[in-house]
Amino acid sequence: MKLGSFFAELKRRNVYKVAVGYAVVGWLLIQVATQVFPFFEIPNWGVRLAVLLIVVGFPIALVIAWAFELTPGGLKRTEDADRVYPGGSRGRAWIYVVISAGLLSAGLFFLGRYTAPNENKIGNVPAKSIAVLPFENLSGDPDNAYFAEGIQDEILTRLAKVADLKVISHTSTQRYKSSPNDLPQIAKELGVANILEGSVQKSQDQVRVNVQLINAATDAHLWADSFDRKLIDIFAVESEIAAKVADILKAKLTGAEQHAISMQPTRNTEAYQLYLKGRYFWNKRTGPDLQKAIDYFKQAIEKDPGYALAYVGLGDSYILLSGFGAAPPQDSFPLAEAAAKKALEIDDNLAEAHTTLGFILCVHHLNFADSIREFERAIALNPNYATAHHWFGDGPLLAVGQFDRAIAEGKRAVELDPLSVIITADLGADFLVARRYDEAIDQFHKAIDLDPRFYYAHWNLAQALEMKGDLRGALTEYKKAVELDDDPFVLALLGQAYAKLGQRDEALKILAQLPQIAAHRYIPSYSYALLHMALGEKDKAVEWLERSYQEGAGLDVIFLKVDPMLDPLQKEPRFQALLAKVFAEKQ
């Protein structure tokens, strides 16, 4: 049969009509399955089965259309129909079927489009998103406030392990009280559709936990319950609540996620409260507060030597000490690495521990490839862990110049922890290193709005202003930062700004102060490098950067290639030789 004759025969046997009609009716049935089945709580496998049957049925329908014909005398083989009804009309009912099915399917599509619960009235946010507000302490004892906070944090942590959910981090929810009156506004600020709130009442070894899950847009109560348990059973209560919330929000859980939700981090509630106190001070991001955090984490480990998260907290604190002038990196980084590895010995599937190790590989070993792989594993284990996204973007990705990816990770961290001042500020640092100065300045202002006394945001804002050419504005911000904290690095930044403004005597005065301060606290060699560079002494600047590398000051040297403050050194041969050492491939 010639090709033209074949297509003519397809048309004569109504195969084209059946194909069009089947496609329209099939689409109608798929719309029914996807829009109506969930309303009757039919499982997702039912929807997938319906779609599969429709797809499989298409070639079968075409074969039947070729072999058979619908006639006034009923269904007959095409050859028989040709003899009985030669050249006759085979009916036009299919046209009405197609038109009716098309109109109905279009109606279902738009009905689903504008009534589906993927978005809500408080903004364009995922339906499967939640913030766990601070639980109210009904115990009458203020000392039990940490216990109530612990239950809230543990439920949040368990929910965060579910990839199908968006869960806001602890630091962003802490400023809200339980049972607030303005849920829609809070949900809008946090970018979520649902709120979980509750209360805790503790009396000796008895605990009562009340919870309620609320749709913030409609103020509808989706679920509420009370739990009366022994203190030793509190982790089981937290697991039960997290599992129930995930179920109500129709979050899909893998077997690994179900296991993670049910795990018990420690059997020692006292250790858990010490851990929470450690995280509270860790989030403040100052040298003295980091030392307090270390003390609390050590106490938690003494209470429970198998408490993996306490080792993570200890490692995270040691990582940051040198960055806030509280310890030399050669002293603190090995302690951080030991703590991270101990945590992974206890639980190799702990995203927090992989995050800590990933950052150590970056700043201590300058092993950027392995660091990136470690962060990727951490995020795969817990996609809602804001610190993993934060340090991934602000660490290895930024160091190797993957600016777009670094900024994307920084934005994801802000999305998960929108009220964290350090995460907000470090997204500004990502913009700064990427030379997107206007966006950096805007981001630093957002951090200062969250906490006007956060000196880190002020000196970073000053750097962005300086890089944009506003040295006077930068000087003002450097002075504010010096007033807010005695970090000697910020004093060095102020000195280099004086030098660039031609106030050489002021810069030399600060340069003379630094060795005196170094007698009793750590000062990064990078501080001296910036001052000497501003004074026009490039050789001395490179010499101090080489010393920084020898000291293992990874928080400074990983950014040598991309730091805009060091642009005047990029053509210096000694500086290029230093870059070759820092970025040499690690075995």
Keywords:
587 residues; 64% helix; 8% strand; two-stranded antiparallel ribbon; globular; alpha/beta
Write the layout of secondary structure elements.
Elements: H1 3-12, H2 15-36, H3 44-67, E1 68-71, E2 74-77, H4 78-84, H5 93-115, E3 129-132, E4 136-137, H6 145-160, E5 166-167, H7 170-173, H8 183-190, E6 194-203, E7 206-215, E8 220-230, H9 234-248, H10 255-262, H11 269-282, H12 287-303, H13 308-321, H14 329-346, H15 351-363, H16 368-381, H17 386-399, H18 403-416, H19 421-433, H20 437-450, H21 455-468, H22 471-484, H23 488-500, H24 504-518, H25 525-534, H26 538-550, H27 554-557, H28 573-582
Parallel strand pairs: 3-5, 3-6, 4-6
Antiparallel strand pairs: 1-2, 6-7, 7-8
Report on the architecture of this protein.
Strands 3, 4, 5, 6, 7 and 8 form a 6-stranded mixed β-sheet that branches. A two-stranded antiparallel sheet has the order 1-2. It is built from 28 helices and 8 strands. With 587 residues, it is α/β, with parallel strands linked by helices. Helices cover 64% and strands 8% of the residues. It is globular, with a radius of gyration of 32 Å. The relative contact order is 0.05. Mean pLDDT is 85; it is low at 88-94 and 111-122. Helix 19 (421-433) runs antiparallel to helix 20.
